[in-house]
Amino acid sequence: MSNSEVAKCPKDRLPEYAFIGRSNVGKSSLINMLMERKNLAKTSGRPGKTQLINHFIINKNWYLVDLPGYGYARVSKKAKKTFQKFITNYFEKRKQLVLAFVLVDCRHEPQPIDLEFMQYLGESQIPFSIAFTKADKLKPNALQRNIEAYKERLLQDWEEMPHYFITSSSNSTGREDLLDYIDRINEE
Ligand code: GDP
């Protein structure tokens, strides 16, 4: 189900898990990898297009929620504001949201926009995990170095490192870990 308004999202109260990150972070690829489908999630498209919240029902048990990517470089202030409102509306109104996965490209240093977004989630008391994407693009040592650097930066803001996953859509790294994690929470 695709909606442009939170009010129109599914009403059946199944637990939901949101996926969000900067555009191009690999969100569609990760969702398709998790679901073992080629084109379930479509790439976020260009800025200015209608922003949609996509609900995918999984095993009639929970929803995977694909939220629009943030952080397009060339977007007007007005478009940024509209987008912010759209996203905060979702996070603040959606009571069945259990957890958000914030996607971060493992190749990049911590980016202000991602750190700010995690701050926002923290202040709003929304639990989140981090999913590092595109792990296949780095050698194991470089990957470990980047994760350590990320941890160090986050520990300036947080008492502990949020739970995190290392993922690659190219070789399905992290798929079982992430899905098991969701199943475990759902069983609690
Ligand atoms: P979205 O905008 O966040 O939905 O990003 P996409 O899933 O469309 O991915 C953006 C680009 O990164 C595409 O060219 C993908 O092929 C590539 N990509 C995404 N995930 C991976 C990954 O795990 N490994 C590699 N090597 N490339 C990836």
TrEMBL record:
Annotated GO MF terms: GTP binding; metal ion binding
GO biological process: division septum assembly
Domain EngB-type G as annotated: residue spans: 13-188
Keyword Nucleotide-binding: yes
InterPro entries xrefs: G_ENGB_dom (IPR030393), GTP-bd (IPR006073), GTP-bd_ribosome_bio_YsxC (IPR019987), P-loop_NTPase (IPR027417)
Keyword Lipid metabolism: no
Annotated keywords: Cell cycle, Cell division, GTP-binding, Magnesium, Metal-binding, Nucleotide-binding, Septation
Cross-referenced PROSITE patterns: G_ENGB
Matching Gene3D superfamilies: P-loop containing nucleotide triphosphate hydrolases (3.40.50.300)
Cofactor(s) needed: Mg(2+)
Function comment: Necessary for normal cell division and for the maintenance of normal septation.
Family: Belongs to the TRAFAC class TrmE-Era-EngA-EngB-Septin-like GTPase superfamily. EngB GTPase family.
HAMAP family on file: GTPase_EngB (MF_00321)
Protein name: Probable GTP-binding protein EngB
Naturally occurring in which organism (per UniProt): Marinirhabdus gelatinilytica
Gene name linked to the record: engB
